[in-house]
Amino acid sequence: MKRLLSLFTIFLLILFSPNIFSASTLETEEDVKVTVTTYYSESNQIHTVLADFKPGDSFRFDKNMVQLTDYEFVFWLVNGEVKSNLELNHEFIVTEDLELVAIFKEFGKHVVLFMDQVGNVLAVDYVNPGEDAQEPKVINYKSLPGYMYANNIWDKPYTNITKDTIVTLVYEIDIVFEIVVEGGKISGTNKTNDAFEYASLVTIEADAAPSGKYFSHWQIGNKIVSNSSKFTFRVVESVNIKAIYSDSERKIDPLIYLSNNLNHISEHKLYYSQFFLPSGYELVEYGLITSPNNEKLTLESSNITVYKGNFYFEDTNEFLFSFSNPLIKSVRAYIITKDTNGNFVITYNQENTPSEDGFTITADFTTNEGRSAAQEAGWGGSGTFSSGYFTLDAAGEYLESPSFVASGPIKLNTNIWVSAENGSQTFVIEAYDEDDNLVETSGNIKLSDTSFGKIKQAYTEYEYELENVNGNISYIRFIYNKELSGINLRFSNFTITHMKETKEISAIGVNLGKTIFKVDEELDLSNTVLMIYYVDGSYLEKALDVSNISNFDTSTAGNKKAVVSYAGLSVEVEYIVEKTDPTFTTPSMRVVEYYAGLKLADIELPEGFSWDSPNTLLEIGEAEYFVTYTPDNLNKYNIVTG
Fold first, then answer.
1. Are residues 472 and 558 in the same domain?
2. Domain boundary pick from 533, 559, 578
3. What is the dihedral of CA 226, 229, 232, 236, to 10 degrees?
4. Residue 2 CB: number of other CB atoms within 10 A?
5. Is residue 307 part of a domain?
6. What are the average pLDDT values for consecutive 10-residue runs of the chain, which has 642 residues?
7. Cα 10 to Cα 4: distance, rounded to the nearest angstrom
C-alpha cells in the first residue's frame, strides 16, 4: 500500500480577497466553508474543511501537489458537477459554500465514478484496463423529488472498462403533484384541477372579473404569486392557487414570489421563486436574503447573507435556491429593477396578512415553551429570560418587541411584578421606526405612579397606549432606568394590540414630479406622489411628507439617489442635480492705449474672468473678444464662456 502525504503538506493554497458584494447589498459577510475531498484509491481518501473564507475570496491548489510517485490528476467535481476541463491549479472564486472533489488515479488504471443526478458521489472504483467495476449499493442514497430509481438503474455499463468513466444513477417518475385553481382554469382545458409530473410547465388563466371588479393577483395561501391574469409556472409541489379580484384597477409593479421550504432534499432547505417584470422594466439583480434571526429581512438588515442569483428560466423567470446551513431561520426573495424612467426599484416577496381587528402580538414568559416561542418570534432585549418570567434588573436594561407594521394606535398590556412597592425608580416606553429612530416616548414614569408599582411581589396588569400618529412604529422597548438599587421588574406576559384594521401593503411607488433639479433647488412636496399598493388590489395616492424621504440633497451637482420609505417599505429614486449659471457682472468695454506687441493677456480682467485666447495680438480699432468666468464653487456653478 502506498503512503500518501498529509493533505496540508501537498495542498498549497494561494488566496486573494476581492469583494464581490457591494456594501449596499450585503452589510455583514458570513464565513463560507470550502470542503475538499481527494480520492487516490478505494482505501485512500482525504477529507478536509478549509475555514476562514469570505465571499469573493479566491484560491487555487499547487499544481505540483500531484507529484507523488505513480499518481496523476483526472478531474474536479465542483458542487457535484464534473469539470473535466479544469486544471489541477484552477483558480476557484468562493461565492457560497463550496464542495470540491479531486479525483486522482494510479498510472495505468482507470477510474469509475458512480454518481446520482444531483451530484452526490456514490462510489469511486479503480480498475485495470478491461476489468469490471464493482457496483455500489444505492438503497440508502437520496432520491430526487417526485422520482424513484429506474429498473435499469445505471445510465451505462460498467464492465470491460477501457477509459475513465462516469456512471450516473437513473430515475423515473414516482409521484405527481396536484394543481387546484380557484377562480380560473388550466389553459387549454376546462379543468380547475389536474395532476402533473415534477417540473411540468403549467399555464393557468383567471376567469373574467365579476361586474364592477378587477383582477388583482393570484395567491397561494397568504403569498402573492403573480399579478398577471394568465401566467405559466413549473410544478414543484401540490398547490391550491386562487384568483383575487378587487374594487379598483391595480397598477402593475414588479413582483417576486417565494415558496415555503419544499422539503424535497433531506438536510437542505429548498426554495422556489418566480418574478414578474412589467413592460419597460429592466432586470438588474435578483436573489435571496437569509438570516439566523427570525425577522422580516431587507437588503439593509444587519447580520444577513445575500445570495445573488446567476441562473433563471428566461421563459418563466423562475429559479431555485438550496441551503444546507441549519442556522438559517429567515429567508426572503428580492428583485432589483430599473423602471421606464431609469429609477432603481427594490421589491421583496410579500404576504397577504390583513385582519379586520388589526393584529395582536403576544409573549408568554411563564413556561419554557412560551419563552422559546417568544424568542423565536423576535422578543428579546438586554434583560434576562428567567424561569417563569422576563427580568429587568439593571439600569438601562430593556424588553424589546418583534418588528411589525401598524398604521394606527397601539395598546400595550402586560403583567409586571416588582420586588418593592412605591419605589421612586422610573421606566420609559419607547417606540422606534424601522431605521431605529425614536418616534414616540412615554417619558419617565415612576413605579410608584403605576398600578403594579404600588403592590409588592404580585403580578399586576398594566396598560399603556401609543398614538402612532405617523403610522411608522416598527418596534417597542420597555426600558428600566433603575436609578437606585433594590427593585427589579419581572414580566409574565406582554401583548401588543393594533386597535384598528390594517391593510397589508404590497408595494410602494413614488414620483418626485421631475428627475432633474438645479443646485440648491428645493423639492416641492406638493408635486410629489406616493403610491401605496395594498394586497387586496386597492391603492392610495398621497403627497410625500418630510418623514418619507431621505438622502435628497441638491447642495452639490451630480447623479444621486433619494430613499422614499413608508410602512416598512423603501424604494430608491434616482435624480440628477445640475449646476446653475453663476450671477456675475460682465466686464465693461474699455479703451486701451495701444503699443506694438500688445496682447489680450496684458489687459487685466476682474477677478474670476479670463481671456479665451490670451495670446491674441491686438490691433488698432474695434474688435470683439471672448472671456470665461470661473466661479469659486465649481460643485454648484457652471463655468460660463462667451
1. no
2. 578
3. 50
4. 11
5. yes
6. 27 28 33 84 80 78 62 88 87 84 90 85 91 78 62 88 90 79 92 89 92 82 85 91 76 87 76 92 93 79 87 90 81 92 86 51 90 87 90 94 83 92 90 86 90 88 86 90 89 86 71 82 80 65 78 88 85 86 77 81 84 84 82 83 76
7. 9
Are 381 and 433 part of one and the same domain?
A: yes
Strands, E assignment, 247-316: 255-258, 269-276, 282-291, 305-308
Distances (CA, A) of 515 to 343, 511, 546, 554, 557: 9, 9, 18, 12, 13
Cell triple for 319: 429559479
End-to-end CA distance of the chain: 89
Q: Are residues 521 and 450 in the same domain?
A: no
* Phi, psi for 370 (deg, rounded to 5): -65, -40
15: amino acid identity, one letter: L
Domain that holds residue 613: 581-642
Position 349: which residue type?
N
pTM of the model: 0.42
Grid coordinates of 74 = 483526472
Residues in the chain: 642
DSSP 372: H
Q: Is residue 25 part of a domain?
A: yes
Give the span between the Cα atoms of 449 and 88, in whole angstroms: 75
| Residue that terminates a domain, selected from 46, 72, 107 | 107
